[in-house]
Write a structure and sequence with these properties.
32% helix; globular; 17 strands; 467 residues; 9-stranded mixed sheet
């Protein structure tokens, strides 16, 4: 049974439903052990606040929530709690992906395959940032919430909204009235967010934003026909991909026209007045930006591409398509120079330094898989100049705030949901530790990543691809 209407939206704000693994055999198969009362002993804690690591800590979990945090020498552990001694490990909040699709380009809905990989990678919550199969996404959201299958908590996004020149399968309302009706209908079905896509026209975009806010929903956008400035003035809540999708600096852009946002990036003065004015406006209008450096990196031929662990999960046809694309990328004389990526990273640093609210998601596609892309996005934020604690805050607490859940998850704090990840190593000293997932805890249930990954090899991507 699907969750429908406003009840779906409000349900996420309530305390999470605690699942009894003994009544959910599909969940139990993936658990490290069934106990929900746990003490994590002698761990480092990066709490998601952006502050330094707390060392030699005890974290106690009871009834699906964090009940105690304190020094290992002085914290009294309940007798009934299962004690895990974890020196040399770091406990962090579960990652919160803010641009995570339940589909991949050119293929059908990923469903449980993606859900398991997200969870195995330490991603306990996602916002899907555009749906290619809305009903399937709603069904997956409800199935995970009921405990019928493992996966992250999902904030489902309505189908993409674009303009006449946009992609074929997307919705293209012709009038503001049609746009408003779609927002009402999809809100009633369970959409929590709406996404404007590249060719959306200004009048339609304004209607979507206004109606979504009336329905208690939020709007993000992968923009092109709208500049960042125009969308901010309309009241958009969030913008995806950062500077690479901004058409504000294109000299020939006309109203409502989608033009190349990459033209002129190499020559753009990232420290100049034009960029500074845009950042000031975004901060003043409280527009969130979503960093998607994991997928953006794939546009640069000399950057790391195609991790072995991701390729092993792809179908043979998908691997072949990846290899073809890599040959095309390396032979493309017009591909962006690597210094452009440095400018994109610098823009995100400047935005945060100015008081801007930055979140992160991978935008799964090509070889950027769910979960793996979230981890890579964290590593790239550190490469961009954020410290590991700062990058973790972007990937957890900032995202929870954007979802209206700042007091529920996104931090290791007393009273918060027990949505946590246990990593082997010292994350504060080495961003690559984000990949060393030993345990994933979602609402007190302790998952074994190896069990979640079992049987996923070769399941990403269609078996046959058309050239």
């Amino acid at each position: 049974m699907l969750i429908t209407g406003l009840a779906c939206f409000s349900l996420f704000a309530a305390a999470p439903t605690q699942l009894d693994s003994s009544h959910n055999p599909n969940i139990q198969d993936y658990l490290a052990f069934p106990s929900q009362s746990i003490a994590l002993l002698d761990v480092d804690v990066l709490d998601g606040s952006g502050g330094p690591a707390l060392t030699r800590q005890t974290v106690v979990l009871s009834n699906g929530r964090i009940s105690q945090i304190g020094p290992v020498a002085t914290t009294i552990v309940p007798e009934h709690a299962k004690q895990l001694y974890l020196p040399g490990h770091t406990v962090i909040p579960g990652l919160v992906g803010m641009h995570d699709h339940t589909h991949m380009p050119g293929q059908t809905f990923l469903g449980e395959v993606a859900a398991r990989l997200w969870l195995a990678s330490g991603v306990t919550t996602i916002q899907t940032a555009g749906s290619a199969d809305f009903q399937a996404e709603l069904s997956l959201t409800a199935a995970i919430q009921r405990g019928d299958m493992p996966g992250p908590t999902i904030f489902p996004t309505a189908p993409y909204l674009t303009g006449p020149d946009g992609n074929g399968p997307m919705h293209k309302p012709e009038t503001p009235a049609q746009a408003r009706q779609l927002v009402k209908d999809w809100s009633a079905k369970g959409a929590t967010w709406f996404k404007l896509y590249r060719h959306i026209q200004p009048a339609i975009a304004a209607a979507v934003i206004d109606e979504a806010h009336k329905q208690g929903r939020k709007v993000t956008g992968h923009l092109c026909s709208l500049t960042f400035s125009e969308a901010a003035q309309m009241g958009i809540d969030s913008i995806e991909h950062g500077l690479i999708s901004a058409t504000d600096f294109h000299p020939q852009k006309s109203d409502g026209q989608c033009v190349s946002s990459r033209q002129g990036l190499a020559a753009l003065d990232i420290e100049g007045e034009e960029v500074a004015k845009l950042i000031v406006l975004l901060v003043e209008k409280q527009v969130t930006l979503t960093s998607t450096l994991a997928i953006i990196e794939s546009h640069f031929a000399h950057r790391p591409q195609g991790e072995a662990r991701s390729l092993a999960l792809m179908s043979e046809a998908w691997q072949q398509a990846y290899q073809r694309r890599q040959r095309q990328l390396k032979n493309n004389a017009s591909s962006m120079p690597d210094e452009v990526l440095a400018k994109l990273m610098a823009f995100e640093r400047r935005f945060v330094q100015a008081g801007g609210h930055l979140v992160m998601g991978p935008d799964p596609g090509r070889h950027v898989l769910p979960g793996h892309g979230n981890q890579r996005g964290f590593e790239l934020l550190v490469e961009a100049g954020f410290s590991p604690p700062q990058a973790l805050k972007i990937a957890t607490a900032n995202a929870a705030k954007t979802l209206g859940q700042a007091a529920q998850f996104g931090q290791v704090a007393i009273g918060f949901n027990a949505d946590l990840v246990v990593l082997k190593g010292k994350l504060a000293a080495d961003a690559r530790v984000i990949r060393n997932v030993e345990l994933v805890i979602k609402q007190g249930q302790v998952y074994d990543p190896a069990k979640l990954l079992e049987g996923l090899q070769g399941r990403f991507g269609p078996q046959l691809l058309q050239d």
